[in-house]
Amino acid sequence: MVIDFSRLNSAPPLTGSTRSSNHQEAGSATQAAPAPSPEQASAPSGESVRLSPEAQQLQKIGDALREQPAVDSSRVAELKQAIADGSYKVDSQRVAGKLLEMEAQR
């Protein structure tokens, strides 16, 4: 489908418009063309994208986070052991403070 941005606020194109008929012809010609080689597929013609240093840094951070496990297994094992042997102590002041913080954010 071709969108003619120059005609967005004007009347629709007349039947037999050269844009839509050319697009259909070009589409059928494109289907018959051989597939591009991997070198051609990786290098788009005349277009390039350049990421800012901030965007590159965010991408690296995102990649590093995806590599991290969702659960810290060693910390879970440590807490399980502390609960099992009775050495785990609940800080009621901290729990109450966190509950109040959560309630204040609502």
Main beta-sheet strand count, sense and barrel state: none
Percentage of β-strand residues: under 5%
**Terminus-to-terminus distance:** 46 Å
H-E order = HHHHH
Low-pLDDT stretches: 17-30
Helix content, binned percent: 55-70%
Total number of helical segments?
5
Mean pLDDT: 76
Oligomeric state of shown chains? single chain
Radius of gyration based on Cα positions: 30 Å
Overall structural class, as computed from helix and strand content, comes to mainly alpha
Number of strands: 0
Tell me the overall shape: elongated
Description:
This is Negative regulator of flagellin synthesis. Pfam families: FlgM. Residues 24-48 have a biased composition (Low complexity). There is one protein chain. With 106 residues, the protein is mostly helical. It has a domain at 53-105. It is 58% helix and 0% strand. It contains five helices and no strands. The chain has helices at 18-32, 38-42, 53-67, 73-85, 92-105. The longest helix is centred in the N-terminal third of the chain and has 15 residues, at 18-32.
Descriptive key words:
106 residues, mainly alpha, elongated, Negative regulator of flagellin synthesis, FlgM, FlgM_C, transcription regulation
